[in-house]
Amino acid sequence: MREKKKIIAFCCENSSLKAAYAVTDQSILDAIEIIRLPCSGKAEIGLVLKCFENGHPGVLILGCPVDNCKYLTGNVRARKRVGMVKKALREAGIDENRVQMDFISSVDSHKFMNIVKEMEERLAPTAR
Amino acid sequence: MITAVQKPFDEISEMVKGHDKLLILGCGSCVTVCMAGGEKEVGILASTLRLFNKQNNISMEIIEDTIERQCDREFFDAVKDKILRADAVLSMACGAGVQFCAEVFEGKRVLPALNTRFYGATEQQGIWSECCAGCGSCVLDKFGGICPIARCSKSLLNGPCGGSQEGKCEVDPENIDCGWQLIYDRMKSLGLLHKLEENEPINDWSTGRDGGPGKIIREDMVL
Ligand code: SF4
Ligand code: SF4
User: Fold this and answer.
1) Does the CB atom of residue B27 touch ligand 1 within 6 A?
2) Ligand 2: distance of its center to the CA of B19 in Å?
3) Is the domain of B17 the same as that of B110?
4) Which site from A52, B20, B71, B187 is most exposed, i.e. has the minimal number of CB atoms within 10 Å?
């Protein structure tokens, strides 16, 4: 049987990764594959598209709150890159909402859980 | 550098239709700098095309590679086998690279993924602007280092037209600075305004596009 591919969560180590560490709900952690980044701005367009190419149903890019990026504008740049990924998905005929950018502080594990849950539910009808 | 932008994806997907094995070939020089056809852009286009093909049940093997330059023969050696095995090459170089690739690999279908735009410079990260028209007889010494041929919308050589308003060009006041305003300001700051009173004779365009396709021959270098 083919392994069920998970949602990829690119997490900035200064914020969302810390929020992820505080999540205790195992079902949330089981639904995602966390990729640690030094900054959300490091999530390259090509890398995100590769995730879809490899069969992952959704990708989350989770950076620091706006105006609170350790590298000043990495998160805002990430948001623009996500815009480019959405454009590529549209061109390929794929639902652009399969990629999502969110801004999370290190203490916001609830928000983290909700974002994952919401994407999971949204993607549930799609074949994995 | 030579600047370019990617063609609309629809146009590209239509162009490559019917080829079973496609090599997307990037260029590591000008178009890498202007972020249109380097290794990263090759990866993005290849992924998008693979996803598109999957959605549309199109079977096509897509290979990716990037060479230093596509306008010099020797750099093709590294990808020769890949080119020969592919049904078609989707080149992400400028128009010169696309044509040269087709010339080096006679009989191979070579397709352009980019629209080549102009000779330009990096104004700031993510913004490139036209500076040179490649006219073949440089006049920059007379205009304070600002080219009236490339940077005035009408390529005027003897002062501005009546459409220059508040430093902007009437052709597109939102986006184009009036080249002649730039020249005037620069010449003023250089203390050379009097030079602009000299009449510039009618330009000889035969060294540019009007003279047909250009060719440079350096006898001392020719083998
Ligand atoms: S092929 Fe075109 S883009 Fe590539 S190095 Fe040559 S001139 Fe520049
Ligand atoms: S407004 Fe300035 S740049 Fe535009 S055509 Fe006239 S002189 Fe040239």
Assistant:
1) yes
2) 46
3) yes
4) B20
pLDDT in tens, B131-150: 999 999 999 999 999 999 99
CATH assignment at residue B26: 3.40.50
Are residue B140 and residue B114 in the same domain, yes or no? no
- The count of domains in chain B is 2
From chain B, the residues in CB contact with A89 under 8 A are 51
Ligand 2 within 6 A of B24 CB? no
pTM of the model: 0.94
State the CB neighbour count (10 A cutoff) for residue A64.
22
How many Å lie between the alpha carbon of A100 and the closest alpha carbon of chain B? 17
Chain A residues inside the 8 Å CB shell of B50: 53
> How are beta strands B2-6 and A59-63 bridged, if at all?
unpaired
Residue B94 near ligand 1, beta carbon < 6 Å? yes
Closest of A21, A6, A101 to residue A52, by C-alpha: A6
CA dihedral B37, A96, A47, A70 (to 10 degrees): 110
Set of chain A residues whose Cβ sits within 8 Å of the Cβ of B40: 44-46
Would you place residue A2 in the very low, low, confident or very high pLDDT band (cuts 50, 70, 90)? low
Question: Could you give the ipTM of this predicted complex?
Answer: 0.93
Q: Which two tokens stand for residue A116?
A: 């994952």
By residue range, what is the domain housing residue B63?
Answer: 2-118
* Residue B191 identity: G
Angle at B218 between CA B212 and CA B219, to 5 degrees: 120
* Per-residue pLDDT reduced to its tens digit, B58-88: 999 999 999 999 999 999 999 999 999 999 9
